[in-house]
């Protein structure tokens, strides 16, 4: 080390003259002793040093598939590593101030994120993920496709509803589609954990407003009232689709993104 820099894993400064490890692809820098704690996923450094404070999902996505933002991958990985025994995962709120601080820290870091293992409360990590998704300029279910998702979920016949949902999911922008698929697979794992006590109905109530939202950035009070139950219905129907459908979008890379 010529110029002292902080370790990307533990955060403490690596002093002048010390030996360090640096990734040639993403430029991640860390102490040799911190190698075992290094995040396994490696993403190329973005052209800008940090992500924008707000934007559409594609602004945060990597340049190579699957197009899932590193922030989403890291939060999900942390939750699946140590959170699947927590009751009320995603329903129990994390400390609001810590959620804001960590979201700001991750956005400022850009593609090379500090490790989330130092966040003691896993509900804070869940809060960061939800807050990031809520803060997008438009939800994962885009404004233009919002009515189509609602119509598909409203179809009484389950087989016809599934077919319509598969069709409209495939029309999403690639980053939105891949991230939605990645999140659906994650939420299915959460729903299957008996300790979490978060079944599909509970998860759809939590993620309906976050993932589906409304058909515009400034919905009327009437639209908000009418959309809320339908948002939950859309997420519940999406979670009823088989995992194999979602894996078709994230491909075999899914196994490398999060622990099985």
Automatic annotation (TrEMBL):
Record key words, sorted: Metal-binding, Zinc
Top-level division of the source organism's lineage: Eukaryota
CDD domains, per the entry: C1_MgcRacGAP, RhoGAP_MgcRacGAP
InterPro entries: C1-like_sf, PKC_DAG/PE, Rho_GTPase_activation_prot, RhoGAP_dom
GO biological process per UniProt: mitotic cytokinesis; mitotic spindle midzone assembly; Rho protein signal transduction
Domain Phorbol-ester/DAG-type, residue spans: 1-42
One cellular component (GO) term of this entry: midbody
Family annotation (PROSITE patterns): RHOGAP (PS50238), ZF_DAG_PE_2 (PS50081)
Name of the gene encoding the protein in the UniProt record: Racgap1_0
Zinc among keywords: yes
Rho-GAP domain segment(s): 55-246
Descriptive protein name: RGAP1 protein
Signal peptide range: none
Keyword Zinc tagged: yes
GO molecular function: GTPase activator activity; metal ion binding
């Amino acid at each position: 080390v010529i110029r002292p820099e902080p370790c990307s894993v533990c955060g403490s400064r690596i002093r002048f003259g010390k030996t360090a490890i640096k990734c040639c692809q993403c430029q991640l820098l860390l102490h040799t002793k911190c190698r075992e704690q290094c995040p396994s996923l490696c993403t190329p450094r973005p052209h800008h040093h940090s992500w924008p404070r707000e934007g559409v999902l594609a602004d945060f996505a990597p340049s190579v598939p699957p197009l899932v933002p590193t922030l989403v991958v890291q939060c999900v990985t942390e939750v699946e590593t140590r959170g699947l025994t927590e009751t009320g995962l995603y329903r129990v709120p994390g400390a609001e101030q810590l959620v804001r601080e960590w979201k700001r820290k991750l956005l400022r870091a850009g593609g090379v994120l500090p490790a989330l293992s130092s966040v003691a409360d896993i509900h804070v990590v869940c809060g960061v993920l939800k807050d990031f998704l809520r803060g997008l300029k438009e939800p994962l279910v885009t404004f233009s496709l919002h009515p189509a998702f609602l119509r598909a979920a409203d179809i009484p016949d389950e087989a016809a509803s599934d077919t319509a949902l598969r069709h409209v999911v495939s029309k999403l922008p690639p980053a939105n589609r891949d991230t939605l698929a990645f999140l659906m697979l994650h939420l299915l794992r959460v729903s299957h954990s008996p300790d979490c006590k978060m079944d599909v109905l509970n998860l759809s109530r939590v993620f309906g407003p976050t993932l589906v939202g409304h058909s515009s950035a400034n919905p009327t009070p009437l639209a908000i009232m009418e959309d809320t139950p339908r948002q939950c219905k859309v997420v519940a129907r999406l979670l009823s689709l088989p995992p194999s459908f979602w894996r078709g979008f994230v491909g075999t890379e899914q196994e490398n993104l999060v622990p099985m």
